Each structure stands twice: as structure tokens, then as C-alpha cells.
């Protein structure tokens, strides 16, 4: 009786331990994993600074759909539809070639050991660091899905047309707080957006700096279908530096997306935007903490899922 009880206790401990991510998950099984990923990310960002933004966004778009399980990386096949053609992703999400290249290098040093979901989490952190932003200890031990979900990608990834209440609700559904929403939106201090995603904001919203609207209208015609893919920086001041200028832009009503400016529009998040604009150390700390929280969304652990051999297809 006593021994069967202790077996049960040990089994329960093992189950809960395997459900817990850890910063040292690969320190014995693949001690070179972190350095291999970092070198590849640093090289890719040096080649093209925007790639840092694209890799950061990939982790977000992974975690918000079925959890952080690399589902976003799966290609469509004849019998399987992935997430890449979902509205928030199609013609927009990028970085797959870089991830495939990182995975090939990691497989070369440690075969069948490091998940694609963990590669995305580490690459997001290394991208932020490569562009001058804060660092944090990435938790590891995620495994890769054997499925993807197009309809969940359409429903769970927030649209740039959402108001503050809807953004707050979309994050709350993933267990993320209003502070997480405001801090993580600071990711828009890097990267680019297409005209079709900010046209309504610069032509029709009232909470926009007129000079900023004029500047962005110059390369984003009012008529739908004209210049839809024309790009503008999400951070109008320092697009390739991970700093807190996103928030100073919001104070100047120069957020590019409707959803960005919603964070400073007379509502409950105005105070936090002011804090991050004035105190970069607070932003850096909260951003790292929020990235860890986002990285904890429903991971597959233990014997769930698999370690994919190539990130774009199931084994
Ligand atoms: C709060 C809700 C959010 C909305 C509505 C949103 C929406 C968008 C949109 C519409 C774009 C431009 C896509 C395009 O035009 O091709 C974009 C780009 C981007 N987003 Fe977000 N986003 C949100 C939150 C986040 C979060 C939480 C992160 C990461 C932590 C993030 C990281 C990025 C990055 C880095 C880019 C630029 C990507 C590139 O240049 O390749 N976003 N986002
Ligand atoms: C996608 O997720 C929805 C909601 O959880 C579920 O009803 C549906 O069966 C899933 N589709 C696939 C292809 O897994
Ligand atoms: C946005 O939120 C309002 C209530 O605050 C709700 O009625 C509406 O359905 C939401 N819209 C979306 C697209 O979620
Ligand atoms: C602005 O709003 C009007 C009225 O709703 C709409 O007809 C027009 O298409 C909008 N323009 C843009 C650029 O979104
Ligand atoms: C997934 O799609 C990309 C882009 O079409 C392609 O380069 C890559 O080889 C594909 N992966 C597999 C495993 O077929």
C-alpha cells in the first residue's frame, strides 16, 4: 500500500515535471543548441534587420494558435491545410527559410532533440537582442504539433482593426493580462506593415496626428486595392532598433495601426503607455516577462507531439 502510493506520487511528480518548461532543458542533451541558434539569428538579422521582426512575429503567431507548438511552420500538403494562408498570415508572415536553416544546423549538432517550437522561442529572444533590445531566459522543453488549425489562426490572431476592449479580450483568452497586451505590443517598435492594414486608420480615424497621416498617405492610396502591399515602418522613428519609441510615437498619436493607437486613446492603458514611454527599463523588464508568459501558452511537453526533423512538415 505504502509503496504503491509512493509510486503514484512519483508518477504524479514526473507528469507535472514534464509539463513544466525549464531554461536548462537542453543543457545536457544539446549543450550547443543555444549558441547555434543565436549565431544563425545574429547572421540573418545582420543580413536583413527586418528578419528580426519577422522571427519575433512568428513566435507570437505560433503561440496564439493552439499554443506554442510550431503549428505555424507546417506547410500545406495535398491532405493537410496549415495556418500560413490564414488572413493574418497570408502574404505577410515570413522567416520560414531562416527557421528551416536554423533547424538544419541544430539537427547537425543534435539530431532529433530540439523542437521547432523552442527554436521559435529562442529565435524571438535572440532577434530582440540583435536589434538592441532586452534579453530574458527562455523556457524550453516544448514539443512540436502534428496538426495545425487554419480556422483558429483566423479567429485567435488579433486583427489591426480591433478596439481596446477586443484586444484585451483576445489576450485574456490566451491567459495574458492588459499589461502583457501593452508590453507585447511594443514589439511593433520593429518591422513593417502593409498599407491594407493601416489604410483605414490613416484616412478615417480621428485619433491620428495629421502630419503623420499625411506622411503615410503619400505611399498608401485611399482606394482599396491600390498599393495594398506598400510597406511602412510600424515605428516611424527607429524601425530597426528595439527601443521604447513605439510608446513615444503613441503619445504623439503616430501609431501606425488602429490597434496600436487604441492603447493610447483615452482608455485604461494610457497610463502604462506613458510609463513605458518615460521609463525604458520598465518596458524592457515587462516585455521580457510578457514574452515568457506568452511562451507558456499551452505547450506540448513530455511525450506529447514530436520533435520534427524538418519544421515545415510532420515526421
Ligand atoms: C496586439 C495585437 C496585435 C495586432 C493587431 C498585430 C497586428 C500586426 C499587423 C497587422 C502587422 C503587419 C502585417 C503586415 O502588414 O504584413 C504586424 C506586424 C508585426 N507584428 Fe504585430 N500585432 C499584434 C501584436 C503583436 C505581438 C504580441 C507581437 C510580438 C510579440 C507582434 C510582432 C509584430 C512584428 C515584429 C511585426 C513586423 C513583422 C515584419 O516586419 O515582418 N505583434 N502586426
Ligand atoms: C480547429 O479548432 C477548432 C476549435 O478548437 C476545432 O473545432 C476544429 O476541429 C479544429 N480543426 C482542425 C483541423 O484541427
Ligand atoms: C468587440 O467587443 C464588443 C464588446 O466590447 C463586442 O460586442 C464585439 O463583438 C467585439 N468584436 C469582435 C470582433 O470581437
Ligand atoms: C472611410 O470610411 C468611409 C465611411 O465608412 C468608407 O466608405 C471608406 O471606404 C473609408 N475609407 C478608408 C480608406 O478606409
Ligand atoms: C515548405 O514550403 C516552402 C516554401 O514553399 C519550401 O521552401 C519548403 O521546402 C517546404 N518544406 C517541405 C518540407 O516541403
UniProtKB/TrEMBL annotation:
Which residues does the UniProt site feature Transition state stabilizer point to? 57
Subcellular localization, as worded in the UniProt entry: Secreted
Which Gene Ontology CC terms are recorded? extracellular region
One GO MF term attached to the UniProt entry? lactoperoxidase activity
Per the database record, which ranges form the Plant heme peroxidase family profile domain?
Answer: 20-315
Q: Which organism is it from?
A: Panicum hallii var. hallii
- What domain of life? Eukaryota
Ligand binding (Ca(2+) 2): 189, 235, 238, 243
Q: Which reaction does it catalyse?
A: 2 a phenolic donor + H2O2 = 2 a phenolic radical donor + 2 H2O
Which InterPro entries does this entry report, sorted A to Z?
Haem_peroxidase (IPR002016), Haem_peroxidase_sf (IPR010255), Peroxidase_pln (IPR000823), Peroxidases_AS (IPR019794), Peroxidases_heam-ligand_BS (IPR019793), Secretory_peroxidase (IPR033905)
Q: Which residues bind substrate per the record?
A: 158
- Top EC class, one word: oxidoreductase
Disulfide-linked positions? 30-110, 63-68, 116-311, 195-220
Instruction: State the free-text cofactor note.
Output: Binds 1 heme b (iron(II)-protoporphyrin IX) group per subunit.
Residues folding into a coiled coil are: none
- Which terms are listed as keywords in the entry? Calcium, Disulfide bond, Glycoprotein, Heme, Hydrogen peroxide, Iron, Metal-binding, Oxidoreductase, Peroxidase, Secreted, Signal
Q: Which residues bind heme b?
A: 188
Q: This protein is called what?
A: Peroxidase
Q: Which family does it belong to?
A: Belongs to the peroxidase family. Classical plant (class III) peroxidase subfamily. Belongs to the peroxidase family. Ascorbate peroxidase subfamily.
Amino acid at each position: 500500500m505504502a509503496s504503491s502510493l509512493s509510486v503514484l506520487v512519483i508518477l504524479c511528480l514526473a507528469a507535472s515535471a514534464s509539463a513544466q518548461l525549464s531554461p536548462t532543458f537542453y543543457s545536457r542533451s544539446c549543450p550547443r543548441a543555444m549558441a547555434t541558434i543565436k549565431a544563425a539569428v545574429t547572421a540573418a538579422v545582420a543580413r536583413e534587420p527586418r528578419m528580426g521582426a519577422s522571427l519575433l512575429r512568428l513566435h507570437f503567431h505560433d503561440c496564439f494558435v493552439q499554443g506554442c507548438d510550431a503549428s505555424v511552420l507546417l506547410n500545406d500538403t495535398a491532405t493537410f491545410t496549415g495556418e500560413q494562408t490564414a488572413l493574418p498570415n497570408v502574404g505577410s508572415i515570413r522567416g520560414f527559410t531562416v527557421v528551416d536553416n536554423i533547424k538544419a544546423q541544430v539537427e547537425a549538432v543534435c539530431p532529433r532533440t530540439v523542437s521547432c517550437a523552442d527554436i521559435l522561442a529562442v529565435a524571438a529572444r535572440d532577434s530582440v537582442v540583435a536589434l538592441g533590445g532586452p534579453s530574458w531566459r527562455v523556457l524550453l522543453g516544448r514539443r512540436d504539433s502534428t496538426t495545425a488549425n487554419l480556422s483558429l489562426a483566423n479567429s485567435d490572431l488579433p486583427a489591426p482593426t480591433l478596439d481596446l476592449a477586443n484586444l484585451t479580450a483576445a489576450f485574456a483568452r490566451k491567459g495574458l493580462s492588459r499589461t502583457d497586451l501593452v508590453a507585447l505590443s511594443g514589439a511593433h517598435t520593429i518591422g513593417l506593415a502593409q498599407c491594407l492594414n493601416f489604410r483605414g486608420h490613416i484616412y478615417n480615424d480621428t485619433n491620428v496626428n495629421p502630419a503623420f497621416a499625411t506622411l503615410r498617405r503619400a505611399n498608401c492610396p485611399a482606394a482599396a486595392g491600390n498599393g495594398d502591399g506598400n510597406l511602412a515602418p510600424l515605428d516611424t522613428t527607429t524601425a530597426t532598433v528595439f527601443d521604447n519609441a513605439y510608446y513615444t510615437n503613441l503619445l504623439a498619436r503616430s501609431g501606425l495601426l488602429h490597434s496600436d493607437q487604441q492603447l493610447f486613446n483615452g482608455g485604461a492603458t494610457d497610463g502604462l503607455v506613458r510609463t513605458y514611454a518615460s521609463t525604458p527599463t520598465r518596458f524592457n523588464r515587462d516585455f521580457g516577462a510578457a514574452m515568457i508568459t506568452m511562451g507558456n501558452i499551452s505547450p506540448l511537453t513530455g511525450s506529447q507531439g514530436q520533435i520534427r526533423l524538418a519544421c515545415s512538415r510532420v515526421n
